[in-house]
């Protein structure tokens, strides 16, 4: 296996469009790194540059010790798995798995052994004689993975490999990919627009927006300390609540929203120097807690309760999303399954201690 290193890598398409601004990061040997971001952020372009399918406009790209900027894809010792499985329809699963190896001139015994290994690892043994048309979407995707696996490449590149599968299958394939990564100890770069996939699969995640790297970190570090508003609102579902206003000290610390409503905040959670300044305040839906419960209020220490108006209540089984308005501002809370507040009523809530995020309203950057 090998590390992948990008040093100020840029991509400018022939029409002058800058798809990737200087990107610098390293995928460690054996690491599963996820590139995530909304459509058009440049994640596929980055992956395709690593694969050699797009030229690097500037900067240095290394795989292992070698600079590969000008190296042909076939010489890079990488294998790529695409969203469209790209299987050969007229070949059986076994032939699909063997094809790339035969093309590269491996002998029959090696080909047979590697196909067997991949089939066992991906539980494809019973399907080896079928053609792709006779496979389910999940089985096809396993064959596509198998085709990469038999190559025993230094680096696996996966471009939205699960996005053609239904939600349930996606979840089980996600676990299979994680398991595969653990067993192989392979270096993998995984592209997705799905934040859940990124959070569950990535050992580290690169968050991209409009061609720029926004933050690189371990999943929970990104979730708990997002570097800016983009990362804060991109990761997490429902998304983080963001309220713009001025931090004030009126009967205790609070955010005075621009349209006048007041959101009381836990004492001690607002840095002294912030009072009087304008901020975008972020609170995750799970950090809006049911207030007015004496016992919990006492354990948490007193935090003043506020009461937004309940709008739409969405029970999803193991939790309830409660959509509300505070003044004219929309808010959402994630409450335990027993809670079913009536639309139209006021719901007493308080902000959890130590969970506030402050961002600069101009630049969107995290303030600490
Ligand atoms: P998606 O998830 O929709 O595939 P992405 O994050 O993978 O999005 P890219 O495919 O990397 O995005 O594209 C990044 C940007 O570069 C997009 O705005 C796209 O329109 C642009 N782009 C891609 N290919 C070309 C090209 N050949 N010429 C000009 N612009 C391009």
From TrEMBL:
It comes from the Bacteria. Gene3D superfamilies: 2.40.50.100, Nucleic acid-binding proteins, P-loop containing nucleotide triphosphate hydrolases. CDD domains: ABC_MalK_N. Keywords: ATP-binding, Nucleotide-binding, Transport. One of its GO terms (biological process) is carbohydrate transport. Pfam families: ABC_tran (PF00005), OB_MalK (PF17912). GO terms for cellular component: ATP-binding cassette (ABC) transporter complex, substrate-binding subunit-containing. GO terms for molecular function: ABC-type transporter activity; ATP binding; ATP hydrolysis activity. InterPro entries: AAA+_ATPase, ABC_transporter-like_ATP-bd, ABC_transporter-like_CS, ABC_transpr_MalK-like, ABC_transpr_MalK/UgpC-like, Mo/tungstate-bd_C_term_dom, NA-bd_OB-fold, OB_MalK-like. Residues 4-235 form the ABC transporter domain. This is sn-glycerol-3-phosphate ABC transporter ATP-binding protein UgpC. It comes from Luteimonas salinisoli.
